[in-house]
Specification:
alpha/beta, 2 domains, two-stranded antiparallel sheet
Length: 403
């Protein structure tokens, strides 16, 4: 056999070459970086087919871009705290009463003059334009349809607070604020929200230097951006690159109690501090004269390996001794979750991801439906445990075994 024939026998065939190329491409980490998570639905189901709030996540995932889904889904760094927020509900057992008349269940309450048919609120979440063309206006429409569930509007909403407030909806609005280094920018935010009719202001003090690895990977998928569209961003706000090599944002590391004292003269509505996780900080809130607390770890987006909010709720409630109301968020998916928080002393629970799943999946009707599901589950859980009113809910309703 000649040299040419020998070379031909030992060389790759076209089929082998294509097979090897395909194997190389399939094993490439770049391809893995582009791969979408599995789509759990082969079709978009009718909304009446969905039984729990969890069902809405799959539909939302199938309808919005991966970057938008990951912005909603991600937690800080390894996402341990985000997972722990959900696990904590498994560590609280409900203890039913015996013979109790629960033919009528009373769930209405009031916070700072805001009347609520249920102790459930929409938590502030940013950039809702990436979920629905009408952004926060769609969320407010859904909230209004669900017994006028109060909505807390994010400082970084896609639509300005005044425009959301002017929309043809009726649910009460609160405003969430991130303190700004440029104090006049903070003043703009807060005065604009009050002029537009916000009923209370929640100043966020957590999420000081968070890193979201899941979303950082998405930078390789395209031009990026969160679909913010401006919203409540002040005229003086400008994006800044962290002045260090450790990718640590310094935007919020300066926050202290002096900021609360500076805004007090022109904030005429109740001020709540959002992001409290310890009895020490809860007592400081009382000492500094704020009107309420939201126990929050930003849905697991503020500090990895921190506690779940449900674990620290009783500690915070005990620290304030009834002097100011305590609300809670992070991880709430079911009406029974809300009942457990009420038993541990919360006055209301705020839902964030759930409401985003609803509006991304079906628009205002979806946001309304997820709230109605949680409201119905709360009523059912109260009836099943023999608690006919919010006043009848106390710590004897639960036993806890926090790991």
């Amino acid at each position: 056999m000649g040299r040419i024939e020998s070379h031909w026998r030992s060389s790759l065939t076209r089929r082998s070459a294509l097979r090897n190329l395909a194997g190389f491409i399939a094993g490439s980490p770049l391809l893995l970086g582009q791969e979408d998570p599995p789509r759990p639905t082969s079709r978009v189901p009718g909304m009446n087919e969905l039984l729990t709030t969890f069902d809405f996540e799959a539909v939302a995932h199938s309808k919005i871009p991966r970057e938008a889904y990951d912005y909603t889904a991600h937690g800080e760094t390894s996402e341990f705290t985000m997972r722990r927020n959900r696990q904590a509900f498994d560590w609280v057992q409900l203890i039913p009463k015996g013979v109790v008349d629960v033919s009528a269940i009373q769930t209405d309450t009031e916070l700072f003059g805001t009347k609520m048919a249920y102790p459930i609120m929409i938590a502030p979440t940013a950039y809702q334009l990436q979920l629905h063309p009408e952004a926060e206006i769609a969320m407010r429409q859904g909230s209004s349809g669900a017994s006028n569930t109060p909505m807390i509007v994010s400082n970084y909403s896609s639509v300005p607070f005044a425009k959301i407030a002017a929309a043809d909806s009726t649910c009460p609005l609160w405003f969430q604020h991130y303190p700004q280094r440029d104090f006049e920018t903070s003043r703009e935010y807060l005065e604009s929200a009050q002029t537009a009719g916000c009923k209370a202001i929640a100043v966020t003090v957590d999420q000081q230097s968070s890193v979201y690895e899941r979303s950082l990977r998405n930078r390789n998928l395209g031009p990026g951006g969160t679909g913010g569209g401006g919203g409540n961003r002040g005229t003086r706000t400008a994006a800044r690159r962290p002045p260090n090599i450790y990718r640590i944002s310094t935007e919020r590391l300066w926050i202290d109690w002096k900021f609360i004292e500076k805004i007090r003269p022109f904030v005429k509505v109740p001020i709540l501090i959002k992001g409290i996780l310890t009895a020490e900080d809860a007592r400081l809130c009382v000492e500094h004269g704020v009107q309420g607390i939201i126990v929050s770890n930003h849905g697991g987006r503020s500090l990895d390996y921190g506690p779940s909010t449900l674990e620290v709720l009783a500690e915070v409630v005990d620290a304030v001794q009834g002097r100011i109301p305590v609300l809670i968020d992070s991880g709430f998916r079911r009406g029974s979750d809300v009942l457990k928080a009420l038993a541990l002393g919360a006055k209301a629970a705020c839902v964030g991801r759930v409401s985003r799943w609803g509006v991304a999946a079906y628009g205002p009707a979806g946001a309304q439906r997820v709230l109605e599901i949680m409201q119905a589950e709360l009523v059912m859980a109260m009836a099943s445990t023999g608690r006919p009113s919010l006043a009848s809910i106390d710590r004897t309703l639960v036993t806890t075994d926090f790991a």
